[in-house]
C-alpha cells in the first residue's frame, strides 16, 4: 500500500512539473486580468478538465500511435527526452513577461491547456508512461496521478492572485528555474532509458 501511494506521489510530481506551472500561472494571470471572479474560476476549471481529458486519452490510447506510425517505444523515449531538454532550457530562460496574453477570447483550452500544460514534452512523456504501463495497478497509478496533477493545476489557478502577491515576478521566475532543473533531470533519465534499451 505504501509503495502504491509513493508511486502515485512520485508520478504526480513528475507530471505536475512537466505541465510547466510557472508558465501557466503567469499566462493565466495575464489573460484573466479583465475577468470577474466567477469567470476566472470557470476558466481554471475548464483548463484543468481539458488537461485531464487530454492526458487520459494519450495515456490509454497513445500506444496506437506506435502501431500506426511504426516507431518503437525506445525511439519515442529518446525523442520525447530531447523535447524535455528543450522545455527545460526554455524555462531556464523564461520570464513572466514572455507569457503575457492579450486576448478577450477563451484561453482555457488554448493556450493554457495546449500548449502550456500539454506541450510536446509532456505529451511525449505521458504516451511513454502509458505504453510502459502494464496491468491494472500501473494503469490505475497513471490515471490517478493525472487526475491529481490536473487538480493541482486547478488549485494553483484558483490561488493565482494570492500566489502572485506572495512570489511576485522574481519568485515566479525562480520557481520557473527550479522547474526547469527538475525537468532536465527527468529528460536525462528518459533519454538514458531509451538509449540503454536500444543498445541492448
Automatic annotation (TrEMBL):
Where does it localize? Cell membrane
Please verify whether the record's keywords include Ribonucleoprotein: no
InterPro entries assigned to the protein according to its UniProt record, in alphabetical order: Multi_antbiot-R_MarC
Q: What residues form the membrane-spanning segments? A: 6-29, 49-69, 75-95, 107-130, 136-157, 178-199
Q: Name one Pfam family in it.
A: MarC
Using the record for this protein, list the coiled-coil segments as residue ranges, or answer none.
none
Record-level GO cellular component terms: plasma membrane
What is its membrane topology? Answer: Multi-pass membrane protein
The alphabetized UniProt keywords are: Cell membrane, Membrane, Transmembrane, Transmembrane helix
NCBIfam families annotated for this entry? NAAT family transporter
Q: What is this protein called?
A: UPF0056 membrane protein
Specify the species: Gilliamella bombicola
